[in-house]
Amino acid sequence: MFDIERWQEIFDTIRKNKLRTFLTGVSVASGIFILVILLGFGQGMQNGIEAEFKGDAATSIWVWPGRTTIEYKGLNPGRRIQLRNENYDVIANQMGEGYEKASVLYFPQNVKVVYDNNLLVYNVAGTTPDLQTIENEYLSEGRYINEADVHNNRKVAVISNKIKREVFADLDSPLGEYITISGAGFKIIGVFGEYGDDEGEEERIFIPLSTAQLTFNGGDKINNLNYMLPDQGSIGETVANSEKFVTEMKSYLNEVHGVSPEDERAIRVWNPIEEAKRYYALTGNIKFFFWFVGVCTIIAGVVGVSNIMMIVVKERTREIGIRKALGAKPLGIIAMILHESIFVTAISGFSGLILSMALLEIVGPNIEIDYVLNPSVNFQVAFATVIVLVVAGAIAGFFPAWRAVRVHTIDALRDE
């Protein structure tokens, strides 16, 4: 039930002690403010890390051969491993359910790229259609290599935005133009780009895998196996699925190429999701640290509220004695102290919440720091934190209130 007289008493007490109440409120509001800002930056770091791993598909796996370093089954170390089309086909048949996309890369050796009698210093790579998704490439013009190009050994090429700028700057579009690769003419059918600032992949000209192998005496050789695994929803499940796939794939490749299971250099695997897991773990530790600092700050504010309420009780000891002499109930006295404690804590807590959320909303999208992107915080989490703070404020006010009701009436009336 709303008691106007009790609220008048609370406001009278606040007016009499403006500075003390203000400083107490600032300590509480700053605790919430600091906590929300820290949590916002923790989320910003997670957003930044996620953005860093979007250069290629986050669940991609890259496989390439090296040299053996361990003698195995009578085979000497130092052998160079050569991946072949058969390896790609067997993995597709035996482990096809473990991935969403698969592609290969073959790099013809000693090829010369010429356009308009000018030698172009770019790499040529034979590949298949799924590489676009795995590499997270976008098309600026035309189309990418498709299955028909690979099946029919078509002499078509996809160039990058960088090559377009550097070689075809005088043309509105390079589509339909021909480049010569070691004497063979290839028609440009598309222009691709890479997300992000890294233009390393834009040094390549992509042609169909079958065409590269047939035209440049590649046989059935390939240089890379590339896979994109499905996102399992959680980082833990995604990592477990990728580890299972890599284990099965390496077991097959080691067996067919006569490689010791302990030889880590013969078949190389780069699994970005494992690196992402380490970064996410680091982010989790940083968030925990932010929570710890923020909670400690809030506790300091709550302790300040408790100390102030103890001073209030001390100052009003005689008043409390008079109230008890006039028949005031212990619960009424406790409620009087608690109301003031909860009021100060709630107003301060929500003020800190509003200020911090507004700051993140205004400043967050404009922050440009490495590995920090759009700092933000879940409003429900922040609101729940304030509610916990209010409860803590009530607890902080309870002990001084309990001390007040335990003072004997005679002793309270004698207090000066």
Automatic annotation (TrEMBL):
Domain annotation MacB-like periplasmic core: ranges = 21-239
Against InterPro entries, the record matches this protein to: ABC3_permease_C, MacB_PCD, Macrolide_Exporter_MacB
Q: What topology does the record note for this protein and the membrane? A: Multi-pass membrane protein
> Per the UniProt record, which residue ranges are transmembrane?
21-41, 288-313, 333-359, 379-399
List residues of the ABC3 transporter permease C-terminal domain. 292-406
Localized where?
Cell membrane
Which positions carry the signal peptide feature in this UniProt record? none
What are the UniProt keywords, alphabetically? Answer: Cell membrane, Membrane, Transmembrane, Transmembrane helix
Q: Which PANTHER family match?
A: ABC TRANSPORTER PERMEASE YTRF, MEMBRANE COMPONENT OF TRANSPORTER-RELATED
Which family, according to UniProt?
Answer: Belongs to the ABC-4 integral membrane protein family.
What is the protein named?
A: ABC transporter permease
- In which organism is this protein found? Croceitalea vernalis
